[in-house]
Amino acid sequence: MRTREAVLPDAEQIHALVAAYSGDGTLLPRSLAEICENVRDFVVLEQDGRIIGCGALHLYGVHLAEIRSITVDPVSQSGGGGRRLVKALLAQAEKHKVSCVCLFTRIPEFFAHMGFTLANHQDLPDKIHKDCYKCPRLYRCDEVAMIRGQAPAFAILPPPKNWLKIQA
Ligand SMILES: CC(C)(COP(=O)(O)OP(=O)(O)OC[C@H]1O[C@@H](n2cnc3c(N)ncnc32)[C@H](O)[C@@H]1OP(=O)(O)O)[C@@H](O)C(=O)NCCC(=O)NCCS
C-alpha cells in the first residue's frame, strides 16, 4: 500500500470513491469536472496497482489548508490506509509551509489520533465562506471542526454577499 500524488487519469476512480460516501452526506459531493479541475489537490492510495483511497488538501493560503474528500474503499478499510492518506496530505501542507490544517468531520476520534484537536467553526471563516453558507445544514451542522497547528487569525476569502442575512 502506498500513496502518491493524483494525476488526471485517476479522476474517474477518485470520483467513484467520493460518490460512494457523498449520497448520505458523509463527504461533500464532487463532480467529475470539479475533480479534474482540482486533481492536483489529491493524493491517492494504491494497492497492487489499484486505487483504493483518496484525499485532498485544499489550499486557502499559508495560514490555512483543509483536508477534504478523504476516503478508503470499504473492503480495504482498517488496514492503515486512512492514516497514510492523512500523513501524505499533512506532508503536502508542510511542503507549502501552511501553518494550520483544518477539516470538518463526524469521526473526530479518527483525526484526533493524528494530532487534530477540536476547534470552533467560527475560527475558520475561509471554510465557512467557501462551503458552509451554501450548505443546507448551515444552521444544524452536525460536523465537528478540527485543526492541527495554529488557528488562523484572518481569512482571505471575502464573505458572501448575503453573509449578514445568514448571520441574522
Ligand atoms: C475514515 C477512513 C478514511 C479511515 O480509513 P481506514 O483505512 O479505515 O483508517 P486506518 O486503518 O488508517 O485507521 C487509523 C486509526 O483510526 C481508527 N479509525 C478508523 N476509522 C475510524 C472511525 N470511523 N472512527 C474512529 N476511529 C477510526 C482506527 O481504529 C485506527 O486506529 P489505530 O491506529 O489505533 O488502530 C475510512 O473509514 C473511510 O473512508 N470512511 C468513510 C468516509 C469518511 O468518513 N471520511 C472522513 C470524512 S471527514
Describe the overall structure:
The chain is an alpha+beta fold. It has six helices and seven strands; from the N terminus they run βααβββαβαβαβα. α3 links the parallel β4 (64-72) and β5 (100-105). The longest helix has 15 residues, at 81-95. Coenzyme A binds next to β4, α3, β5 and α4.
Short description:
The protein has 168 residues and is α+β, with helices and mostly antiparallel strands. Helix content is 29%, strand content 27%.
Task: Record keyword descriptors for this entry.
168 residues; alpha+beta; Aminopeptidase; seven-stranded mixed sheet; binds coenzyme A
Reading off the top of the CATH hierarchy, the class is best stated as Alpha Beta
Radius of gyration equals 16 Å
- Main β sheet profile: 7 strands, mixed
Strand content: 25-35%
Distance between the termini: 49 Å
CATH superfamily: Gcn5-related N-acetyltransferase (GNAT)
What's the pLDDT, averaged over the residues? 93
How many β-strands, per DSSP? 7
Bound molecules: coenzyme A
What would you say the CATH architecture is? 3-Layer(aba) Sandwich
Provide the structure class.
alpha+beta
Overall shape: it is globular
Order of helices and strands: EHHEEEHEHEHEH
CATH fold-type name: Aminopeptidase
Uncertain runs are none
Domains, number = 1
| Assembly annotation | single chain
Strand line-up in the sheet with most strands: 1-2-3-4-5-7-6
Number of discrete helical segments: 6
Classify the helix fraction into a percent range.
25-40%
